């Protein structure tokens, strides 16, 4: 699995003009699933993301966790994180098929919720418009193949 995690002041996802997910302080997570990924990767990644300490403490140091700041997550499926960029037109054959990817996308979010976090979400496979007010900016990349 691959994730782009951005610390945000706020973020939202809209489908056909309707806001389907919105958070204030927290993480916008763009989540891609590879064909070899399993529930193990989803749980590992949820643990890493939910445990990040990248919010500033009173001394201005990145030391506080999502839990400490009362943050939420907005998770958006993003198969393009597995794009093959060898040519000018990306290929997506390295992304998991929807029948594999969607249950793992759901598993990731369920694992975050099981840790006590509020998780807002996009809609798997939908054409979405994502808006965010990045904080910092702080953006981190995760790849379970490289852990």
Written account of the structure:
The protein has one domain: D-tyrosyl-tRNA(Tyr) deacylase (D-tyrosyl-trna(Tyr) Deacylase, Chain: A, 3-Layer(bba) Sandwich). The chain contains 2 helices and 8 strands. The protein has helices spanning 39-51, 98-114; strands at 2-15, 18-23, 26-32, 53-56, 62-65, 72-77, 119-121, 129-143. Strands 1, 2, 3, 6, 7 and 8 form a 6-stranded mixed β-sheet that branches. A two-stranded antiparallel sheet has the order 4-5. A hairpin with a 2-residue loop joins strand 1 and strand 2 (18-23).
The run of helices and strands is EEEHEEEHEE
CATH architecture: 3-Layer(bba) Sandwich
Please write the CATH class name.
Alpha Beta
Number of discrete domains: 1
Relevant CATH superfamily: D-tyrosyl-tRNA(Tyr) deacylase
Helix content: 10-25%
Poorly predicted sequence stretches spanning 5 or more consecutive residues: none
Assign the CATH topology.
D-tyrosyl-trna(Tyr) Deacylase, Chain: A
Q: Indicate the radius of gyration in whole angstroms.
A: 15 Å
| Overall average pLDDT | 95
Based on Cα principal axes, name the global outline.
globular
Which range does the strand content fall in? 35-45%
Work out the helix count: 2
Q: N- to C-terminal separation?
A: 11 Å
Instruction: Characterize the biggest β-sheet.
Output: 6 strands, mixed
SS-based class: alpha/beta
Q: What is the β-strand count?
A: 8
């Amino acid at each position: 699995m691959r994730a782009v995690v951005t610390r945000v002041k706020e973020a939202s996802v809209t489908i056909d003009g309707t806001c389907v997910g919105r958070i204030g302080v927290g993480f916008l997570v763009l989540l891609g699933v590879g064909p070899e990924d399993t529930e193990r990767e989803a749980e590992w990644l949820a643990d890493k993301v939910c445990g990040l300490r990248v919010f500033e403490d009173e001394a201005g140091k990145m030391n506080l966790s999502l839990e400490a700041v009362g943050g939420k997550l907005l998770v958006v499926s993003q198969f393009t994180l597995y794009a093959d960029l060898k040519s000018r037109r990306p290929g997506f054959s390295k992304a998991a098929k929807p029948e594999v990817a969607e249950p793992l996308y759901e598993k990731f979010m369920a694992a975050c919720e099981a840790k006590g976090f509020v998780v807002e979400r996009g809609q798997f496979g939908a054409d979405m418009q994502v808006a965010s007010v990045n904080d910092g900016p702080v953006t981190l990349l995760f790849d379970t193949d490289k852990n």
